[in-house]
Amino acid sequence: MINKLVENIKKTNAPIVVGLDPMLGYIPDHVKEKAFGEFGETLDGAAEAIWQFNKAIVDQTYDLIPAVKPQIAMYEQFGIPGLMAFKKTVDYCKEKGLVVIGDIKRGDIGSTSAAYATGHLGKVTVGSKSYAPFDEDFVTVNPYLGSDGVNPFIDVCKEEKKGLFILVKTSNPSSGEFQDQLIDGRPLYELVGEKVAEWGESCMGDEYSYIGAVVGATYPEMGKVLRKIMPKSYILVPGYGAQGGQGKDLVHFFNEDGLGAIVNSSRGIIAAYKQEKYAKFGAENFADASRAAVEDMIADISQALGNR
Ligand SMILES: O=c1ccn([C@@H]2O[C@H](COP(=O)(O)O)[C@@H](O)[C@H]2O)c(=O)[nH]1
């Protein structure tokens, strides 16, 4: 799957990911009213609104982008109907040729991680039958439990030719509370980065490993160091747009070949119609506003990479 991700990035010339984080507050009233008219103000109604919102955005952007990142929390909050909307979104994006990164941030003791890995990346056996329950292409993994919490995910990736993005340095303001703690004079995120590079060595695609890392756009200096520590790992970079990251901050997350990083924006794209810059589209044309925001993001990153 790493080969498909790299191929899609080269084809679109767009190292970006659209984050599908559909909070109800971002969904225009006309979409919600239609869904609630059909299913009532219920969890099913919310799930239908989410699905219709996602579908419209994917239909308007899929030709410009290599990948999407649905954030499972935004679906899980609506219970089983929400998870059904998540699955429908995953399947639809794959039909459109997009690589799907499930932002699930899982990680537990080995046996539990194995079940998460099976459910999200692998196949579960029921009697004589086998099913791929969620079937994302990549998932995000929390490495805090150590190797035995991560290895079950790697095992399933090897079997299924899928991939991981492991949290190394997250974009949030308090990420340093633990991640920047010094151990023998070195910050913990560097040690985790070294481990990601080590896990990735036995998981090589054609050019890059299918074991990647998450490093926030909000910490560009750390991104520069981590790029060198993990030269063969793709870096998923959240924090662009709504969290303040800009193209000029991201240059050092990329390798000299212009590859190696993929930048996520969620609210900045899916709720673009709410920003003054894209207000001319109006709520009715929210998906056109998302397309314009994708085009602007690609231009911003391309310009930054061109200027280095
Ligand atoms: O360090 C991290 C890891 C994951 N995220 C996730 O990315 C998106 C960001 O959303 P924006 O609206 O573009 O801010 C969201 O799903 C987070 O859970 C992150 O932000 N930082």
UniProtKB/TrEMBL annotation:
Q: What keyword terms does UniProt attach to this protein? A: Decarboxylase, Lyase, Pyrimidine biosynthesis
This protein's species is: Sellimonas caecigallum
For this chain, the family text in UniProt reads:
Belongs to the OMP decarboxylase family. Type 2 subfamily.
Give the matching HAMAP family.
Answer: OMPdecase_type2 (MF_01215)
**The reaction(s) this protein catalyses:** orotidine 5'-phosphate + H(+) = UMP + CO2
Name listed for the protein in its UniProt record: Orotidine 5'-phosphate decarboxylase
Q: What class of enzyme is it?
A: lyase
Quote the Pfam families the UniProt record gives. OMPdecase
Matching entries from InterPro entries are given as: Aldolase_TIM, OMPdecase_type-2, OMPdeCOase_dom, RibuloseP-bd_barrel
